[in-house]
Amino acid sequence: MIVLVTGGNRGIGREVCAQLARQGHTVLLTARSERAAKEAAASIDGDVHPLRLDVTAAEDAEEAAREVAARHGRLDALVNNAAITYDTWQRAVTADLDVVREAMETNLYGPWRLTMTLLPLLRESTSPRIVNVSSEGGSLAGMGGGTPAYSLSKTSLNALTRMLAAELRHEDFLVNAVCPGWVATDMGGPGGRPVAEGAASVVWAVTLPAGGPTGGFFRDGRPVPW
Length: 226
Ligand SMILES: NC(=O)c1ccc[n+]([C@@H]2O[C@H](COP(=O)([O-])OP(=O)(O)OC[C@H]3O[C@@H](n4cnc5c(N)ncnc54)[C@H](OP(=O)(O)O)[C@@H]3O)[C@@H](O)[C@H]2O)c1
Fold this sequence. Notes:
Layout lengths: L1 E4 L5 H12 L3 E6 L2 H9 L5 E5 L5 H14 L5 E4 L16 H26 L6 E5 L14 H21 L5 E5 L16 H12 L10 E3 L2 E2 L3
Parallel strand pairs: 1-2, 1-4, 2-3, 4-5, 5-6, 6-7
Antiparallel strand pairs: 7-8
Helix pairs in contact: 1-6, 3-4, 4-5
The chain binds NADP nicotinamide-adenine-dinucleotide phosphate.
NADP nicotinamide-adenine-dinucleotide phosphate binds next to α1.
Protein name: SDR family NAD(P)-dependent oxidoreductase
Pfam family, one: adh_short
Family: Belongs to the short-chain dehydrogenases/reductases (SDR) family.
């Protein structure tokens, strides 16, 4: 498979790239810093190619699409992993809406636009997959207070997942949202589970067999309540 991963320079994204490369897949490791993309790609064994891609920049998405088209002519899977603003310091009753808007740019509009930009290349694949890395924090079923920017952005990403899955079902796309669980990364902080386990939860959805689930929300291959 040829797989593009956003935010591939550190955390869960980097480990997703490493696990996919270990399985023999071609990985397009993207990062908003060209240097970070190159360093991370060089640190992973296998067929890993660095690509600069800030998910908030439309021109970056278009340039990435041109590069992928020229080099590979198709894309088999897109992993929308990059995200920001786990705003534990905020509450909905007093939220700074500029912080919320900024989170939405990276966590919702970025992956949405990138998906649309890469759709023609995904359509060239015989088994296209889109994996939106979400969080149970976006689950309406268990929604409480706190982390308003982050939670809202992930709820919205989940809704987008449902829409894309429905609109692309007849083209044999598998589009799913995945929660990696609480993972010990820069975002998750200490105490979470190892990054390899969180990444494996994502890789499961990337490598689903034909006829696998679409329009679902999963952690470790098991459904999570919306
Ligand atoms: N860690 C957890 O406990 C946990 C739990 C549930 C869900 N998740 C989800 O898992 C995913 C990965 O999280 P993580 O824990 O690995 O986070 P992380 O360690 O903070 O890494 C975030 C990654 O996203 C990248 N990024 C941020 N803004 C970007 C942009 N505009 N364009 C491109 N890349 C950008 C970062 O790049 P820079 O290095 O340039 O900043 C970095 O590579 C996220 O979607 C997160 O919401 C994590």
